[in-house]
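Usage

Read records sequentially. Each one opens with the input sequence:
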Amino acid sequence: MQYIQGKNREQSVLFPQSLDEIISADNEVRMIDLFAESINLADFKFVTKNATEGRPAYNPKDLLKLFVYGYLNAIRSSRVLEKECHRNVEVMWLMKQLSPDHNTISNFRRDNQKAIRQVFRHTVSIAAQFNLIGGKLIAGDSTKLRAQNSKKNNFNESKIEQHLVYIENKLNEYNKALEVADEDNKKIIETEINKQNNRKDFYNNLSNQLQQNGDTQISTTDPDSRQMITRNNITEVAYNVQTVVDEKHNLPIDYKVTNENDSKAMSAMLRRTKIILNTTDFTALYDKGYHTGSEIKKAVEMGVNIMVAIPGVASFAPDERYNFDQFIYNQQQDCYTCPQQQTLTTNGNWYQKSKQRYIYFVKHYKTKSCATCPALALCTKNKKEDCWNAAKTNPILSRTKKY
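and closes with the structure output:
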């Protein structure tokens, strides 16, 4: 059987290929090289080390090229990038066969975090010069990325308090057992008491850190991560990456890694986008997770045109025909008409409610006709005889006051 044969490894070559001949004209490394050489490092405040004695330092531009190559090819590890410098022909061409060790690569990334972020922002301005950024319609969203921190190593005040109560109960049990224990068992019990006291000190220190920092959570393995809802009410200790994408070619304009949910993120990302695009003449699209009154107010004051999806009602009726959106609102008379043609009125008062750290106001709409309504079981889960009393404290309809 015939196979395609390779070349003899020991065969001498009269005119060997150069690295430049191996790399094609449209290879991405040529673009990376051109981009890095075109920027002025002083404008981005890169840390430069000009050693007068000993071995010279690497040029920050060369290390930046390596970092950008790793970013485009999903290579984050400094050790892997070091290995690529020895075996990857593309990297050999890009680095001119320089091979910095993993410590040099890691230190460059650590010392120039802010400068590298500014370089990525600079790519947006370059894209705009080539008319790749429309700058008229953008969309913002987020992605939850699970952190290395496990749930058991994430604490809040309630969780810490539960641990302290458990420890106190165990200490009481051990102290009682110590009073009646013989000499052999006393040492074992004393060891357990010391163990529980050490755990008690650990949780007290966590509680003090929360009070001093004013945080609601603390993570011991990955300090910047927080527990948050990722999907379908499932919580994970994670990060929340906010991104803004331009509509013309779906190019990302900006990103920011946060440890908070979406409700307070929109205005900050719009402010950053405004600085990058150098204008507020654009429309921003966001989903219902960003529908927060204070954030909408900030966007309007900023002069940005926004389109934010309105969240649906938090609870649903047993029959979807009696959901909130099936009630007709009369703005002039400030009342609702239900599917059974009954009118729900209000006393006009706004009532303050609170959820977690947020405060909002609602207006209640009620009707006594619920007690005799034939569709009561389709509209609400309240019992017939308790319907009117329940409506006073847990109204069928409420309107949220926005700011």
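Summary fields computed downstream for this record:
- Residues 385-396, 399-403 have pLDDT under 50 and may be disordered.
- DSSP finds 14 helices and 14 strands in the chain.
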